[in-house]
């Protein structure tokens, strides 16, 4: 077995020998989705534990939103099954609606209603006691810092306030599991932090959350575990720290060469890097910016800086920086690898 896929294989084995128990709020079991000959989702398996924030990373078209649509019953499964609290989306979708909340990628709000009216409708649909509905709405508006907008029409809301309301709708009644499809897209930094704090509080209250995002910072801040999806399949799985330790050993070196750049100066730099640091390889070249990946932690940062600094002038280096591998770099490496 490829060591890169061992975590995915282990999780798949756990799920496919699954018998319903209380450890997972949701189980995705050998699920595929085809549109004609196109495979949008390819035989994926994973479980979301109770009280866990589970991240789903992937570029546009990776299958994230399709997966959410299958979970919420908007799309049929081609094969496999999804269980929420032990109930199948193919057989018990009405029961599942009582256990889930959903914040869609695009706000599905009615502009002529107020925030309070919207949350009242959702609360009544969820069967919340009429006597405590207003109290819960006030608590949600305080949690998400949009109290002054709660009685205004949604048509006057900013994009950030609309996202807060969509998130509030998804957690009304403390669902067993909430699905958040890019919940902070288009949101300013202050509102983003507000949503992050609310997500932490929801998780601490016992709800599970499944989060899709293009923000690596967001996934590192919120997710206990995450998967990276490329072309409809899961390429890796684990906590952000685990993925960085497993796939992110070493350093990234960004080198900016002085203009004008000639092929000779690039070859000279490449020869220097490979002699000094045998475990490095050329990652990318963009104009005068050259990026190297050094795949070992055995080299000290002081050694790296010292070697480049001493040869800076002879190699026509204008500027350089060295950093440890980030979750974003790991994500990009998987995407590039799958596209080759």
UniProtKB/TrEMBL annotation:
Gene Ontology annotations for the cellular component aspect, listed alphabetically: membrane
Residues in the signal sequence: none
Superkingdom of the organism of origin: Eukaryota
Gene3D superfamilies xrefs: P-loop containing nucleotide triphosphate hydrolases (3.40.50.300)
Pfam families: ABC_tran (PF00005), R1_ABCA1 (PF23321)
Coiled-coil stretches: none
Entry keyword set: ATP-binding, Nucleotide-binding
Residue stretches of biased makeup (Acidic residues): 1-10
InterPro entries reported in the protein's UniProt record: AAA+_ATPase, ABC_transporter-like_ATP-bd, ABCA, P-loop_NTPase, R2_ABCA1-4-like
GO MF terms held by the record: ABC-type transporter activity; ATP binding; ATP hydrolysis activity; lipid transporter activity
Residue span of region Disordered: 1-21
CDD domains: ABC_subfamily_A (cd03263)
Domain named ABC transporter: residues: 26-256
The name this protein goes by in its record: ABC transporter sub-family A-like protein
């Amino acid at each position: 077995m490829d060591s890169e896929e061992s975590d995915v294989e282990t999780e798949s084995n756990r799920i496919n020998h699954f018998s319903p128990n209380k450890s997972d709020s949701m189980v995705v079991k050998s699920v595929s989705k085809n549109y004609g000959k196109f495979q949008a989702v390819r035989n994926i398996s994973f479980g979301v534990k109770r009280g866990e924030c589970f991240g789903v990373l992937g570029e546009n078209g990776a299958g994230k939103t399709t997966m959410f649509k299958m979970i919420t019953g908007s799309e049929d499964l081609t094969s496999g099954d999804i269980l929420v609290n032990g109930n199948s989306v193919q057989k018990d979708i009405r029961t599942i609606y009582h256990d889930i909340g959903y914040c869609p990628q695009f706000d599905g709000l009615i502009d002529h209603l107020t925030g309070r009216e919207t949350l009242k409708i959702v609360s009544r649909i969820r069967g919340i006691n009429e006597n405590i509905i207003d109290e819960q709405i006030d608590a949600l508006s305080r949690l998400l810092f949009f109290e002054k907008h709660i009685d205004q029409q949604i048509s006057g809301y900013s994009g950030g306030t609309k996202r807060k309301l969509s998130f509030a709708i998804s957690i009304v009644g403390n669902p067993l599991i909430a699905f958040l499809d890019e919940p902070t897209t288009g949101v300013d930094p202050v509102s983003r932090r507000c949503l992050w704090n609310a997500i932490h509080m929801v998780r601490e209250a016992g709800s599970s959350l499944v989060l899709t995002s293009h923000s690596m910072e967001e996934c590192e801040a919120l997710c206990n575990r995450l998967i990276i999806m490329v072309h409809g399949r899961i390429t890796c799985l684990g906590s952000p720290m685990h993925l960085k330790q497993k796939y992110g050993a070493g350093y990234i070196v960004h080198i900016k060469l002085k203009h004008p750049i000639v092929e000779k100066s690039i070859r000279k730099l490449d020869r220097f890097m490979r002699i000094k640091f045998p475990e490095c390889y050329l990652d990318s070249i963009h104009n005068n910016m050259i990026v190297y990946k050094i795949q070992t932690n055995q080299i000290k940062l002081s050694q790296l800086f010292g070697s480049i600094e001493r040869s800076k002038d002879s190699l026509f280096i204008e500027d350089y920086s060295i950093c440890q591998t980030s979750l974003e770099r790991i994500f990009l490496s998987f995407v590039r690898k799958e596209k080759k």
